[in-house]
């Protein structure tokens, strides 16, 4: 069997979701399928089964496929850092913080790591589905592209294009990406999936004819726009979420600061009809909410300063002390509840800092160089900060804090999640030409 690359004709075209949906449909044909992304850029991370740190997208894809996770699913992960730098996570372990320009200069050094990961999965599975990143034909970056051109060229994968019709310009994006691909990769394109179609699909019959007859590219499916509020990878995905709040009994405000991380923490809340979640990006009145959540943060001091500058900091302090509104801090949010955040080794800053916290927990947070990575059945920890008094959790009155992500996951949600995944696959299955895909990769 040939392996598959999923290329988007633009960012947020639906590559991550269609990768595991196609994987599930191939599993129904009896194939062992593994998800893979050579390099991901995301503040959303999870702890894999081998206790390594990988991106949420590949972790969720593996969960949807029911396969074990390891660093091989995502050998290179970049998390935004201070200024133009990024935290570099290789083989699931944080190695360094590098300027992005330096990172691209050293890219060739990472190719053996990517090769090792792909070859491991290729050996243990029938089909590896390699998700691309953004557009594969950013001409000024193609020689620095690990996830698209490098993988497809090195391992001779078959290529499926995914085009987002909702953005507009779908014909230009398909034609342009296809013709800008290197000739040898163009020959490996087995077709295109037109994603996020709204309305009467018969209106696109002529579009299918144009793509197939005039462009010479097989249409593997025209997929209807179908919201799927699981596996959030980035803030853009989060903005696309939908929730019915008509029956909600609890109003929840999630403070969405600039480097908020681990958006998937809130998937169980979005799935609960009794809860209505709003992501807060400005100093609105929070007194009408039942619960205020301070989520994870990639750059704690930066996000704390943002809270102070826009007035949310003072408002949260007031509501915590003078009302019975629940204040919940998760990981970075938990750290913000402390008196001071002390980063003597400049782990997250350009110089040593001591930043004042909300002072709702009488202890300090001290950053240590080695990142803490822990995983239990439903929860996991990823953090540099350590509380001077509390190991994992704190609760007093209306204040609750924890280092644990996955706080709201329970058996009911896990059952909901699996049902939702199967329902989503069943919904999309009639629109995808899996017979054609199997034929082309056999």
Tell me what you see in this structure.
The chain has 442 residues and is an alpha/beta fold. It folds into 2 domains: 4-225 and 415-441, 3-Layer(aba) Sandwich (Rossmann fold), CATH 3.40.50; 235-409, Class I glutamine amidotransferase (GATase) domain (Rossmann fold, 3-Layer(aba) Sandwich). Helices cover 32% and strands 28% of the residues. The protein contains 15 helices and 24 strands. The chain has helices spanning 15-28, 56-65, 100-105, 111-124, 146-154, 170-180, 183-186, 205-214, 235-239, 267-270, 300-310, 312-322, 332-336, 411-428, 434-441, and strands spanning 4-8, 33-36, 39-41, 45-47, 53-55, 76-80, 85-90, 93-99, 127-131, 158-164, 189-197, 219-224, 250-255, 260-261, 275-280, 291-294, 296-297, 326-330, 340-343, 353-356, 365-375, 380-387, 393-396, 399-402. A 6-stranded parallel β-sheet has the order 2-9-1-10-11-12, sandwiched between helices. Strands 15-13-16-18-24-23 form a 6-stranded mixed β-sheet. Helix 8 (205-214) links the parallel strand 11 and strand 12 (219-224). It is globular and about 65 Å long. It starts with a strand and ends with a helix.
Label the CATH architecture of the largest domain.
3-Layer(aba) Sandwich
Q: What general form does the structure show? A: globular
Number of strands: 24
CATH homologous superfamily (4th level) name of the largest domain: P-loop containing nucleotide triphosphate hydrolases
Given the helix and strand composition, which structural class is it? alpha/beta
* Percent in strands: 25-35%
End-to-end separation:
5 Å
Helical element count?
15
Parts with pLDDT < 50 across at least 5 consecutive residues:
none
Radius of gyration from the alpha-carbon trace, in angstroms: 22 Å
CATH first level of the largest domain: which class? Alpha Beta
Q: How many distinct folded domains?
A: 2
Instruction: Give the mean pLDDT.
Output: 92
């Amino acid at each position: 069997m040939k392996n598959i690359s999923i290329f988007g004709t633009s960012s947020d075209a639906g590559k991550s979701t269609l990768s595991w949906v196609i994987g599930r449909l191939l599993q129904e044909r009896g194939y062992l399928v593994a998800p893979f992304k050579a390099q991901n850029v995301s503040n959303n991370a999870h702890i894999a089964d081998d206790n390594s740190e990988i991106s949420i997208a590949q972790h969720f894809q593996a969960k949807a496929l029911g396969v074990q996770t390891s660093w091989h699913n995502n050998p290179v992960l970049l998390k935004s850092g201070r200024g133009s730098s990024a935290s570099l996570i290789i083989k699931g372990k944080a190695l360094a913080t590098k300027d992005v320009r330096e990172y691209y200069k050293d890219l060739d050094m990472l190719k053996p790591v990517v090769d090792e990961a792909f070859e491991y999965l290729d050996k243990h599975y029938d089909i590896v589905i390699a998700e691309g990143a953004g557009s594969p034909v950013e001409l000024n970056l193609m020689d620095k592209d690990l996830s698209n051109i490098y993988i497809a060229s090195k391992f001779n994968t078959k290529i499926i294009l995914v085009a987002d019709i909702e953005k507009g310009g779908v014909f230009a994006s398909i034609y342009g990406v296809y013709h800008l691909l290197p000739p040898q990769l163009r020959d490996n394109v087995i077709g295109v999936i037109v994603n996020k179609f709204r309305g009467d699909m018969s209106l696109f019959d002529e579009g299918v004819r144009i793509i197939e007859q005039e462009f010479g590219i097989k249409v593997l499916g025209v997929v209807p726009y179908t919201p799927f509020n699981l596996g959030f990878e980035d803030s853009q995905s989060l903005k696309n979420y939908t929730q019915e709040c008509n029956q909600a009994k609890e109003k929840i405000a999630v403070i969405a600061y600039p480097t908020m991380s681990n958006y998937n923490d809130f998937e169980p809340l979005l799935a609960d009809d009794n809860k209505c979640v709003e992501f807060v990006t400005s100093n609105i009145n929070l007194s009408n909410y039942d619960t205020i959540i301070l989520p994870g943060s990639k750059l704690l001091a930066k996000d704390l300063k943002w809270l102070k500058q826009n007035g949310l900091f003072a408002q949260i302090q007031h509501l915590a002390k003078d009302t019975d509104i629940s204040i919940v801090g998760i990981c970075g949010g938990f750290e913000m509840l402390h008196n001071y955040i002390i980063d003597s080794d400049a782990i997250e800053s350009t110089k040593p800092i001591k930043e004042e916290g909300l002072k709702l927990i009488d202890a300090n947070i001290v950053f240590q160089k080695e990142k803490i990575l822990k995983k239990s059945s439903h929860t996991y920890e990823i953090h540099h900060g350590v509380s001077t008094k509390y190991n994992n959790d704190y609760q007093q009155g209306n204040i609750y804090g924890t280092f644990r992500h996955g706080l709201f996951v329970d058996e009911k949600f896990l059952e909901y999640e699996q049902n939702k995944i199967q329902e989503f696959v069943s919904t999309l299955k009639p629109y995808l030409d899996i017979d054609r895909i199997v034929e082309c990769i056999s």
